[in-house]
Amino acid sequence: MPAFDKRVSDFQAANTQVLGISTDSPFSHENWGKSVGISNYPLLSDVHRAAAKDYGVYWPDWNANRRATFPLPPRRRPSSRVLNLSGSRPVRAA
Fold first, then answer.
1. pLDDT 10s digits, 18-70
2. Residue 45 DSSP label
3. 73: DSSP letter
4. Taking the C-alpha atoms of 58, 60, 66 and 69 in order, what is their torsion angle to the nearest 10 degrees?
5. For 48, which of 38, 56, 57, 67 is 20 to 30 Å away at the CA?
6. How far apart are the C-alpha atoms of 25 and 66, rounded to whole Å?
7. CA-CA distance, 88 to 65, in Å (whole number)?
C-alpha cells in the first residue's frame, strides 16, 4: 500500500482514485498509515465486513478479509481482482 501512496499522482493522471479499505478501525488506520507513510489517499474502515463480503474477499473462518486489489471502472462493480494470499504470490481471480 505504501507503493500506491508513492504513485498517487500517476493514478490521478489516469483519472483514477486510490482507496484503502480494511476491517480495522479508523483509529488503527490512522496509526498504521502514519507508521508506513500513507498520506495521499484515504483508508476506509469496514468494521462490519460489508465491503469485504460484497467484493468476495471475506474470510469467515478468520472473521477477516483477504488482501485484494480491485481496478474499478466509474460507477461499476469490479470486472477482475488480484488476491494476495498470505505466503503466496498474488493470483488473479475471475
1. 888 888 888 998 898 999 999 998 888 898 999 889 888 898 998 888 888 88
2. E
3. -
4. -10
5. 38
6. 16
7. 16
